[in-house]
Amino acid sequence: MKKTYRLLFALTALVFTASCTPEVEDAFDKPSPDRIAEAISETKDILTAAPNGWKMAYQGSGGFGGFNILCRFDKEDNVFCEEESDHAKGTSHYTVQQGQGVLLSFDSFNAALHKYSDPVGKINGKSVGKDGKGFQGDFEFRVMSCTKDSIVLEGRKHGDRVVMTPMPEDLTWDSFFTQIATVASGMSSERYNIIIDKDTLPARMNLHTLHTTDKNGKAVAIPFIYTPQGIEVLKGDSLNGRKLTAFTYSTDDKWVDPNDKGVMLSPRDITPLEAFFSDNWTINVGYSSTAEMNIWKAAAAYAASKNMEIVTVFFSTTPGFLSLSSYVGDDWGNLRTLYSTSGKNQITIKGFRPNPKGTANERNGAVYYNQYKLKDIANTFLVNGQATDYTLSIDDPKHPLWLRMTSNSHDEVSFVFYRGIWSADF
Question: Which interval of the chain is the signal sequence (predicted)?
């Protein structure tokens, strides 16, 4: 017979006084310690009974969506886990014990699970979340319900809902992760459209969360997890009055919600301006116009003569403004860029403003600008010393890696950038 139980948070004996109720039978047929002991035993039996382990749809409170972690529990209190992002694996100890009901704890380090509860979150070597918070995930969970078909957990610290379902016996873990990777790659895009009937809402993705704005201008976050079928929405606000549940992957780029055919997710091309402001872009000296790069090389040589090597120069919005950023000597510098934009690919560079009283990086930028020829580098963007209009172009509208900035008035002046922060070859 299928056993299902709901675990109570305050398992305390009910005390009744004679003045309130003269005769009261016990509300439960077993004492509280017996009930919790039975619930702990049943939880452990169910955890260890799945022959191919469990699929955990893990999420934290940091707003990054859900990640698949596969877990196999044994009766000796060991658990082996593997997660989807970096394929981190680990075997560790687990306990099932009392703690405001039944508590499942991964109480020794497991590389696959603790990467999401660690205060320093990383994926593929890149930091995730704020310093000291990471994904804001848990490693201890209250067991809210437990059957052989589903285990529902709640993070003890952050309170996020985590659901575990048994892995199919005929599906290897390697095959599962391959299916997930194929779907994630096929659905990957810089930008998306969420189409609800006749409304088209632009969206972007941050890790495993879609961000959009509804028809009333309200920002909406849609956390999700990848499945072999596509995307499963974990939770979130309704969007234009509709509850999103999932998007089924297909090669035609029309990913329909299986529970509401009027809702669809589609990838869209990113514009050059969107690309420029969405990441860091490092100068490529070899592909940029020769006259301008000769000035850059002369500036780099001068700085090197002062034992202040210019390692790289790149555009960035990370400081909270568009910055012509640099790494000189052994520290970073930021230089505020004055600009305006129009259309999908037009930017006007109007000048640069050093800030000797700003942040540490801004103060560094002012020093590099005034003392180590960064001013000469910055001025190459101002043709004849004037504000200059540029056309931006990218190599791939789905996943651009290269960006070119070409002067509208002097097409021989062009700057080519490679996505990310790299050392510049001066």
Answer: 1-18
* Cα pseudo-dihedral 419, 420, 423, 425, rounded to 10: 0
Please name which of 267, 135, 124 lies closest in space to residue 189, comparing C-alpha atoms: 267
Output DSSP code: residue 124.
T
Rounded Cα gap, residues 404 and 182, in angstroms: 31
Residue 28: per-residue pLDDT: 53
The DSSP bridge partners found for residue 54 are 71, 166
Domain formed by 5-171, architecture: Beta Barrel (2.40)
Question: Which two tokens mark 27?
Answer: 């509300």
DSSP label at residue 414: E
For residues 109, 113, 117 and 122, what is the CA-based torsion angle, rounded to 10 degrees? 110
Tokens describing residue 108: 């020794």
Q: For domain 273-419, which CATH number applies: 1.10.10, 1.10.540, 1.10.3470, 2.40.128? A: 2.40.128
**Same fold for the pair 5-171 and 273-419:** yes
Listing DSSP states for 325-370 in one string gives EEEETTEEE--EEEEEEETTTEEEEEEEE--TTS-HHHHHHHHHHH
Residue 296 backbone phi and psi in degrees, to 5: -60, -45
Q: Which tokens go with 202?
A: 């632009």
Q: What is the dihedral of CA 36, 40, 45, 46, to 10 degrees?
A: 90
- Tokens 């700057």 sit at which residue? 415
Give this prediction's pTM. 0.77
Written as one string, the DSSP assignment of 250-294 is -TTS-EEETTEEEEEEEEEPPPHHHHHHHS-EEE-TTTS-HHHHH
Token representation of residue 383: 């043709």
Rounded-to-integer distance, Cα 107 and Cα 338, Å: 52
| Residues present in the chain in total | 426
Distance CA 293, CA 195 (A): 45
Tokens of 32: 């509280």
227-264 CB burial, b ≥16 within 10 A, e <16: beebbebbebeebbebebebbbbeeeeebbbeeeeebb
Residue 163 CA to residue 152 CA, distance in Å, equals 5
Kindly state the tokens that stand for 194.
């969420």
pLDDT of residue 181: 97
Predicted confidence (pLDDT) per residue in 16-69, tens digit: 333 333 343 444 567 777 788 898 999 999 999 999 999 999 998 878 899 999
